[in-house]
Amino acid sequence: MDTGPWNRRFVHDLLFATEGSGWHEPELKDSIGFRWSGPGYFSILRVPAPAGAGRGEAHLLLSPSEPLPAVVVFLNGRRLEVMQRRLGTFGVLDFAWDAAAMAGEARAEFWFHAERLQRLPAPGERMRSVGFRLSTLAIEPAAAGPAPAGEALALIAGSRFLRDRLHVAAGRPRLAFRSDGEARLLEMRLEGARLGPSAQPHLTLALRATADVMDLALAAPGRPALALHQGVAGRLALPEGLSPRDRLLVARLLATLPEAFGRWLDEAMTGAAPDAELLAFWRRGLARLARGGEGFLAAALADGPDPFAEDPALPFAWPAQVPG
Is it true that the peptide bond before 39 is cis, omega within 30 degrees of 0? Predict the structure, then answer.
């Protein structure tokens, strides 16, 4: 008998280990597990999720007289419309998203931005800042799931091949935000990065975003900056002067930027009261840039010069002079 389409529901219980930041240690109340958000206003939860459009519920544990807390929810940098309701001892946040919110994303990154914090004692400890008590997060696709994938082997083999032959690492990110008129600027310093076999003490990415256009410059100490451009259609233009393999390494590095941004959030947002809309703007922009890098990589591997004809042990070669 053939296996037909199916729906899968993902339920994440915060009593157990989570990936993200901005949460206190798990607790139990009347046999219900939960975590307080805090110590800042911004909490992050990264979970596996189905591709395409979907819907979800966040179950917040409430006291009998406690009002529903005001919480803004983002998915992969997109603000979601949230409907609130009570269900027994829980407040439920209902939300949904379209396919664009998960386009090119390997996981769902939910941001919960609490409107207010309060100071409460921790069990057996000193006072702490908390927002709301999240017990479970449940998400599911909006439509029937796909039939079992027949391309899984090819995807696994391709991922392993790229990891072995085009290895990159963004290192530890440090970020600074600025503006210039209507343009938004972001400087990313990537410490301990890697491009293929070459360790990079640090790389600097200067990004300038206006509407749907992104200009960026990638530089290393003592090297000329490489200028890149992503137009309205999302197509990424890389500079000449690099070998075919090194152009692919740059594209692969761009594809890692959303994950690096997430690691910076985990470190920098502890106890912070951030501008969530600004962070969401750059989360969307970096995701779009990553998709452009992956698209360039796919097109180059399919139709471009063979990037694996050269010795993979050769170091990354910065051009002595960037073509004008």
Answer: yes
**Region class of 52: left (phi > 0), else alpha (psi between -120 and 50), else beta:** left
Which residues pair with residue 89 across a beta bridge?
none
Token reading at 198: 């070459």
The span from the CA of 16 to the CA of 252, in Å, is 33
Instruction: Please write the tens of the pLDDT for every residue from 28-62.
Output: 999 999 999 999 999 999 999 888 899 999 999 99
Phi, psi of 58 (to 5 degrees): -110, 125
Give the predicted TM-score (pTM) of the model: 0.88
Mean pLDDT of all residues in 81-93:
95
* Antiparallel, parallel or unpaired: β 83-87 and 90-97: antiparallel
* Residue 319 belongs to a domain: no
- The whole-angstrom separation of Cα 262 and Cα 105 is 13
Claim to verify: residue 128 and residue 156 sit in the same structural domain? no
- Beta carbons of 293 and 236 less than 8 angstroms apart: yes
For residues 110-116, average pLDDT: 96
- Summarised one tens digit per residue, pLDDT across range 190-246 is 999 999 999 999 999 999 998 789 999 999 998 889 999 999 888 999 888 898 889
**198 forms bridges with which residues in the sheet?**
195
Structural domain containing residue 219? 152-303
Q: Is residue 20 domain-shared with residue 125, that is, in the same domain?
A: yes
CA geometry: angle 161, 215, 191, nearest 5 deg: 55
**pLDDT tens digits, residue range 265-277?**
999 988 778 899 9
Q: ∠ CA 160-163-164 to the nearest 5 degrees?
A: 90
Look at residue 281 and give its three-state secondary structure.
helix
